[in-house]
Amino acid sequence: MSTTTAAGAQGRIYLIAAHPHWRDSRVNRLLVRAAHGVPQVEINDLYASYPDYVIDIEAEQEKLARADLVVLLHPIQWYSMPPLQKLWLDEVLSYGWAYGTGGTALQGKDMWLVATTGGPEESYHPQSYNRYFFDAFLPPYEQTAALCGMRFLPPLVFHGARSAADSEITAHVKTFADRLGSYPNWPEIDEMGDCPTCVVPETDRPADDSESERHVFADTSLRATSTTETKAVA
Hints:
There is one protein chain. By secondary structure, this protein is α/β, with parallel strands linked by helices. The protein is 38% helix and 15% strand. The protein is built from eight helices and six strands. The longest helix has 25 residues, at 209-233. The protein is globular. The N and C termini lie far apart (44 Å).
């Protein structure tokens, strides 16, 4: 898979699919397939688009700018998102564009998490091996949306993807497709109110890119030198 748009779509919904191993997927693969049949959905398989992890920031920002709904679709890995999805957030949602002074490009848009877990729902409990209810792992997603002035819609989560019956998966995929196709006519959206506002003061502005690059270059050079010396005496 790569970036595709359903027939007749205008990119009103931008679905970002991040699964490192599609062949092993029981649920996410079917969710993406179903999304292809929904109008106004632009789909981007991050691992197909950026196998070298070099993200086209300008292209991604253009897709986000024309979307009303941004869907993050992925399996939960170590209580968070896959690494390429995290890198996408780090690089695309930049200061001055997505948040901070002048960063208003995403204000008023919606974010929807569509996720799967390998463990069953009952494993996300204080008395089980995951120790917390699943909601305890959502604040980073919620605050990412809030910092960008976006509404974080109630997530659609499918637990126990490894062991779920085929009938359960089929029903879940249908629910997902129906929800995607009916956006923005969701009853809960009317009850949520306006998007939150998180003002980042100028004093908290990140370092300039040029300064960050100098630090990275210096650190990389230092580590390269250390590695060379280690090999020399090995």
